[in-house]
Design goal:
The protein is mainly alpha-helical. Helices cover 69% and strands 2% of the residues. It has six helices and two strands. Helix 1 packs across helix 2 (39-54), helix 2 (39-54) runs antiparallel to helix 3 and helix 3 (72-90) crosses helix 4.
């Protein structure tokens, strides 16, 4: 029952997460690191949306009629970060967790990548046989997802070669993004 409303809702949710992650990173990098104001009110609707994404059938993360980005690992990491910040903000002595800026920026970068992948999929033709119309970024994201799946199925998912391969692909993706700017 996928449709444009579901897809645009995914794009909107990812964008909201992206904006909140940037706000968290800015607050963390300020002269006096503080948990952003109203983090609980901002986080709760996003946490609910992320939970609903995790509960989608067949392990689909973000989806449209002809494309899905299965990145439940990112969803889980964002949920963990937001839950951690919410707990801290509600504690007696709120304190910004360690390395929050780095974690938030890393997750924000991935949010941007997911958003672009969903948008690219929305603008590409429905014909799955003709990949010549898909952008290199979309194809790199598809390769990344496929490799993550293969790694999970591997007998040695923690082998250094897998880590090396994923790191090289991340480097290729970041170089491609730099070229596009």
């Amino acid at each position: 029952m996928d449709n444009w409303n579901s897809q645009s809702g995914d794009i909107e949710s990812v964008d909201q997460v992206y904006q909140l992650l940037l706000e968290i990173a800015r607050s963390s990098l300020s002269d006096i690191p503080r948990i952003p104001e109203n983090i609980t009110q901002k986080s709760l609707p996003l946490l609910q949306k992320l939970q609903s994404i995790q509960q989608r059938p067949q392990g689909q993360g973000f989806k449209s009629d002809w494309f899905s980005v299965n990145d439940l690992e990112w969803v889980a990491q964002v949920r963990q970060l937001l839950e951690e910040l919410t707990r801290q903000s509600l504690s007696e002595r709120p304190k910004m967790p360690e390395n929050m800026a780095g974690r938030a920026l890393s997750l924000a970068d991935k949010a941007q990548s997911i958003k672009e992948t969903i948008e690219n999929a929305a603008s590409s033709p429905k014909d799955e046989d003709d990949n010549s119309f898909q952008s290199p970024e979309t194809l790199l994201n598809l390769l990344h997802q496929s490799l993550k799946t293969q790694r999970a199925k591997s007998y040695q998912p923690d082998a250094p070669e897998w880590h090396q391969l994923m790191t090289m692909l991340d480097v290729v993706q970041s170089i491609y993004k730099q070229i596009q700017r």
